[in-house]
Design goal:
The chain has 254 residues and is of the alpha+beta class. The protein folds into 2 domains: 75 residues, no CATH class; 114 residues, endopeptidase fold (from Nostoc punctiforme) (Alpha-Beta Complex), CATH 3.90.1720.10. Helices cover 31% and strands 23% of the residues. The chain contains 6 helices and 14 strands. The chain has a 6-stranded antiparallel beta sheet with strand order 9-14-10-11-12-13. The radius of gyration is 51 Å and the shape is rod-shaped. The N terminus is likely disordered.
Length: 254
């Protein structure tokens, strides 16, 4: 006989064949008739198993209390309630979760490192005009500035490229030729052939180009800060002046 106890345990009860269960109802104990299974393996009732027990009935008053001898049954641990998780299973899930989280972190870190390396390779393989500019040593820059300053006061002459008279690009090409650097003859020609640099990288001795519509119309030699030396226009002379336009670009001949 199997009895489900409300505490969550399954009670497996073994009674001697034909033994009655004592039922207390009222003042005097009464005997209830309980069908029991035969003990032989060939018994049809034993083969039927749970079906026979399910159909068995016990006759007793409504308020009867069923009691058994203590040695007549054995309490077994109840199965887990639906949804319950054993502590060992919980520990296993925690271990697996930490392992998966670590694997995901390491994978993401490797992917980030690969992206950084790829970006660096791309930057090296696709250098900008700024990156390709030659390094201007302080010695060369100082030499260029010193040479340019010799010609302060030389009058502006359109098309001039000598100390008898300079225009803007004639002046810069003449100065740079004295340090072995050949420049194009026009301001826009120099702008298109000289490596470009950012204003924040400009040093004395670099070129300053004034722009309009994507072309350069004037050029001078950078002195640092917001100053340059140039041959400005007709009626003027080679002079030091402010960089008066915001639309400028810087270049470094090499």
């Amino acid at each position: 006989m199997v009895i489900a106890v409300s505490s969550g345990l399954v009670a497996g009860v073994g009674l001697p064949g034909g033994a009655p269960a004592q039922v207390s109802g009222g003042s005097a104990p009464q005997t209830a008739s309980v069908p029991l299974l035969a003990e032989t393996a060939s018994s049809p009732a034993l083969a039927a198993g749970a079906d026979t027990l399910a159909s068995a009935t016990v006759a007793a008053p409504p308020k009867a209390r069923v009691t058994f001898e203590r040695s007549a049954f054995t309490a077994l641990p109840a199965r887990n309630a639906a949804g319950a998780t054993p502590a060992s299973a919980t520990r296993a899930v925690d271990t697996i979760s930490r392992s998966l989280a670590r694997t995901a972190y390491l994978s993401a870190r490797s992917a980030a490192a690969a992206r950084t390396a790829s970006s660096a390779r791309h930057a090296i393989s696709s250098p900008s005009a700024t990156a390709s500019a030659p390094v201007l040593s302080s010695g060369k820059g100082s030499t260029i500035v010193a040479i340019a300053m010799r010609y302060l006061g030389v009058p502006y002459v359109y098309g001039g490229a000598s100390p008898r008279g300079f225009d803007c690009s004639g002046f810069t090409s003449y100065v740079f030729a004295q340090v072995g650097i050949s420049l194009a003859r026009s301001a826009d020609g120099q702008y298109r052939t000289v490596p470009r640099i950012a204003r924040s990288q400009a040093q004395p001795g670099d070129l300053v180009f004034y722009l309009s519509g994507g072309s350069a119309y004037h050029v001078g030699i950078f002195l640092g800060g917001n100053r340059m030396i140039a041959a400005p226009h007709t009626g003027t002379v080679v002079r030091v002046q402010d960089i008066y336009s915001a639309n400028v670009a810087f270049g470094r001949p090499g």
